[in-house]
Amino acid sequence: MLRRSTGGARGALKAAGKLARSFATVEKADCVVIGAGVVGLAVAQRLALCGRDVLVLESAPTFGTGTSSRNSEVIHAGIYYPPDSLKAAFCVRGRELLYEYCSERGIPHWQIGKLIVATGPSEVPKLSSLMDRGARNGVDDLRMMDGPEAMRMEPELQCLKALFSPVSGIVDSHSLMLSLVGEAENHRATFSYNTTVVGGHLEGNSMHLHVCETKNLDENGNGQFPLQPELVLVPKVVVNSAGLSAPLLAKRFHGLNDQVIPPAYFARGHYFTLANTKNPPFRHLIYPIPEDGGLGVHVTLDLNGQVKFGPDVEWIDGVDNVSSFLNRFDYSVSASHAERFYPAIRKYYPNLKDGSLEPGYSGIRPKLSALQQLASDFVVQVA
After folding, report:
1. How many CA atoms lie within 13 A of 177 on its CB side?
2. Three-class SS of residue 310?
3. Residue 341 CA to its chain's centroid (Å)
4. Name one Pfam family in it (predicted).
């Protein structure tokens, strides 16, 4: 729940609101969605289809430049998440809706199937636990395979046992986002790119959003926000889907109780591509047993047949607020990272040749729990 501050904070809150109004144009709006990643786009599309007047504010020059375009593009089945969690429920139902949406609109996707593999005796019980969890979550048609059967399905694979998920798949994330943008715009949604929400304040029951042009925030260049916004928007509905900066943005909404804002942790993941692959070694997604903070260095294929390995897990910190808002994370992939990838991949793909991995891309996982903490469930907060 969004809650207002009380006591001495009220004076500071009133001062912040008065100062913002004295220097900026104030405009009313119906629905404002902050962030044009895949989540923000899906929210905007649904609101627009319901007849709402939607404005999407995005700090980047276009949609989907953050985590939405820096991931494995996998449609997950719902195997990994604790039963009765929001993650489990949303993943299973979301997968069904996503396949339906892509099929109806001709968005490139492929229900390719996935093998989760145990390569050592200690991993076999973990595989059984995953199967039980997936069944409890409502994932259909999971099947346990002995090593020889899995290796007949994938001759380049080496494993003792494997869990086969036929409903896992891949999707062209850019085409998906382009479809959501088009449908939202066709129902009169407006997109304002290069526009950053830098904070806000509560007045009564209304959130006042402080907005500035991204170029002016960028020109500041000192890791600090401008003292005054250029525009104050007063929407009836605000959706904070600002991706990696969503918790940081929430903390800049004066008048909210900081106790309801979850902490933010970041884990970088690198990807490498397989060089010279006219014939991909695998026809299905291949995943090892999950690790702390991720699902292990796995094999994914895109719709063009390119083979990707990743991501690893590299916890990061020390990112200032402005850099987070402007997506200034370090996305470089050093060739030296391949030294850690080869032994991890060869556990299930022993024929991987030296020198065959090329740096691909990287992404940042938004996390609500830190290293060696129990994974958090989704947090959905409403006023």
Report:
1. 19
2. strand
3. 23
4. DAO
Strand partners, 28: 234
Rounded CA gap, 312 and 345, in Å?
11
Which residues pair with residue 237 across a beta bridge?
Answer: 31
Q: Is 226 left (phi over 0), alpha (psi -120 to 50) or beta?
A: beta
pLDDT digits (tens, 9 = 90+) for 114-124: 999 999 999 99
User: Which among 238, 242, 216 has a CA at the least distance from the CA of 227?
Assistant: 216
| Sole residue written with tokens 């929407």 | 235
CB 312 within 8 A of CB 361: no
In single-letter form, the type of residue at position 294 comes to: G
Contact between 145 and 162 (Cβ < 8 Å):
yes
Burial of 164: CB neighbours in 10 Å, binned 0-12, 13-18, 19+ = buried
3 state SS of 208? strand
Q: Give ∠ CA 269-379-206 in degrees, rounded to 5.
A: 120
| Residue 33, CA distances (Å) to 52, 137, 182, 201, 361 in order | 12, 31, 16, 16, 28
What the block records as the tokens of 64 is: 């989907």
pTM: 0.89
**CA-based nearest residue to 54, from 18, 22, 20, 30:** 30
**Structure tokens that stand for 226 in this block:** 């401008």
- Within 50-195, where are the H helices? 86-105, 124-136, 147-153, 173-186
Residues 253-279: pLDDT tens digits?
999 888 888 888 899 999 999 997 778
Distances (CA, A) of 182 to 31, 49, 58, 214: 18, 12, 16, 24
- Count Cα atoms within 13 angstroms, Cβ side, for 373: 11
CB 191 within 8 A of CB 382: no
Cβ atoms 280, 300 nearer than 8 A: no
